Amino acid sequence: MNAPIYLDYAATTPVDPRVAEVMARHLTLDGIFANPASRSHMPGWQAEQVVEGARRQVADLIGADPREIVWTSGATEADNLALIGFMRANRARGGHLITSTIEHKAVIDTARALEAEGFEVTWLEPGHDGRITPAHLAAAMRDDTVLVSLMAVNNELGTINDLAALSAVVHARDAIFHVDAAQAVGRIPLDVIDLGIDLMSLSGHKVYGPKGVGALYVKRSPDIRLEALIHGGGHERGMRSGTLPTHQIAGMGEAFALAEREGEADQARIAALAERFLAGLDDLEGIHRNTDVTVAVPNIVNLSFDGVDGESLLMALRGIAVSTGSACNSASVEPSYVLRGIGVPRSRALTALRFSFGRFTTEAEIDAAVAEIRHAITTLRG
Ligand SMILES: Cc1ncc(COP(=O)(O)O)c(C=O)c1O
């Protein structure tokens, strides 16, 4: 059997071969593999240089200073560090956090853990377009609100929040703005100064880098202090201890440098592929697009299909690797909380599939996927 056509780039991307090549140079004895914290020998200094070079590559993509990048194991840990680390360190300033009902579980479950610790959380509901409005946020802000956490690009819908407008609301009330940008890197411009972002979570594996590495951007400001969650050798200026994974970090740096150089061209090509995909299904009745395309990235296409059962559809599409809602929930038969959160009826949410395209998607793959979907829908409806 042929390998399925991979249309699940929002769950994870394959590592770009250029990234893999850089990583391979940082693993074995003949490469730069040492512990970057080893200050007593040349291999350690070389590894430190690699880590600092990658820190600059990540910082450059988001308009930050390299000293503002804290390495983590991924965006999940970065979200935990931002929310828990900031709320705990600022308990005296107030205990109120604002987030939304359609964030990634890395934010939702972290906010729930903070509620259990005694912090108060306001859960904003998005509009039908999947976005949080500045007016809605302004109405939820309180004197004791210290942190607002909202995502840049939604992982199921692809919708883009108006980060500049939201950060203006947050800062008007002297609070701090955290953004989960795991799905946004390389897809939309992300300048932390222009957008007024104070804390931002990043992931390596959503942008053709390796899994198991990410970062938190922490704006250098006396107002922004974080309590560490992981204690140990005091790495990353005490914010995140643990030996830095030189090869992972070198890979993430290269991936971000490629995103800076090629992200815009990737997106333009992917937008054309998404149009080709949708045009191929256009004459089929009863297909609903769950995303308001005027405010979304083109690489994520979320569709529901009338007259078929979601599980049967997935089974019939075994030649295509796609996701029902969020990959993290794929064991569950509950409809996606994100789709329900924007008002998609339960029955329609149950047949939703997320198709996500990437750097290596080809026109031939799109055409083959379209043919398979057309065949599956017609057969199942028949
Ligand atoms: C929006 C968003 N935040 C956080 C994460 C988690 O990222 P990581 O896998 O790097 O922990 C993901 C990935 O599923 C995501 O899409």
TrEMBL record:
PROSITE patterns: AA_TRANSFER_CLASS_5 (PS00595). It catalyses: (sulfur carrier)-H + L-cysteine = (sulfur carrier)-SH + L-alanine. Its cofactor is pyridoxal 5'-phosphate. It comes from the Bacteria. Keywords: Iron, Iron-sulfur, Metal-binding, Pyridoxal phosphate, Transferase. The keyword Transferase applies. It is an enzyme of class 2 (transferase). InterPro entries: Aminotrans_V_dom (IPR000192), Aminotrans_V_PyrdxlP_BS (IPR020578), Cysteine_dSase (IPR016454), PyrdxlP-dep_Trfase (IPR015424), PyrdxlP-dep_Trfase_major (IPR015421), PyrdxlP-dep_Trfase_small (IPR015422). GO terms for molecular function: cysteine desulfurase activity. Signal peptide: none annotated. The keyword Transferase applies. Residues 5-368 form the Aminotransferase class V domain. Its EC number is 2.8.1.7. Belongs to the class-V pyridoxal-phosphate-dependent aminotransferase family. NifS/IscS subfamily. NCBIfam families: PRK14012.1 (NF010611). This is cysteine desulfurase. It comes from Modicisalibacter tunisiensis.
